[in-house]
Amino acid sequence: MQKLKTVFVIDRETGLATDNIQQGAEWIFEGKGKATVKVDGSSVLKKEGKFYRRLDRKLQKKYASMKKHGKLSEITPEMFALARDGWVAAEAKPDLVTGHWPGWMPLNPDDNADKYHWEAVDNLEDDAPDGTYELVGPTVQQNIYGLDYHLFVKHGHEEVDVPRTLEGIQEFLETHYIEGLVFHPEDDSLPMFKVRRKDFGIVWNPLADRRHYPEWKEPVNNASL
Fold this sequence. Notes:
This protein is of the alpha+beta class. Among the domains are: about 100 residues, no CATH class; about 45 residues, no CATH class. About 10% of the residues lie in helices and about 25% in strands.
C-alpha cells in the first residue's frame, strides 16, 4: 500500500488545502471512480494468511536533525536506518521529500507491541480476504470510535456519494464526522487520493494534536466508523 497523496495541493505554511488539484487527480472531478470513508487507525496488511503491521523506516537521527533544521539539501536511501529483520518495503524507493520509507513488519506473537493486533486477528472472520485493513480500538488514536475491543476494518469498506467539487467535498466533510475520504480510480494502475477534515481546518481528533487544541476537554470517541 503506497502512501496516498492529497486530492488538493496543501499549503505547507498553513497546512490547509488550496484550490489547486493534485496532478493526476483530475479524474475525481470528472465523476470517475468511487469515494470511500477513510478510517483513522493503524494500517495492517493481510497477505497469504499472514498479518503485517505498518512500519516505516525513517532517517538516521543525524540526518533527521539536519532535515528538521533545514540543513539537508537532499535525501538519499543511504541516510535511512537499517531495516529490521523481516521488514518488507511497501514502496520500491523511499520518499525523499518526507524522509519516510513505508513498509510492513510481520506480526510477532512474542512481541508485546503486537498484542492488540493479535486481538484484532482473533476478532476477524476466518474467511476475511487478503488486503489492507485499519486497526482501531481502545488503544488507537484516543479510541476515536469509542470501541471496547480491537478490530480490523477493511480499507474501502464503506462507499459514499460525494459531490465532485471542492465546495461539495468540503461540505460533505463538515456534515459527516469521519476522518476523511479516499478516492479509488476505475483503473487500478492509477493512484488513489485522500482528503481529510483537517485539510480544511475542520476539527477531527483534537486529542491527537495537543499543539492545536491544548484546552480541548470534550470527548472525541463518537465518530462514525
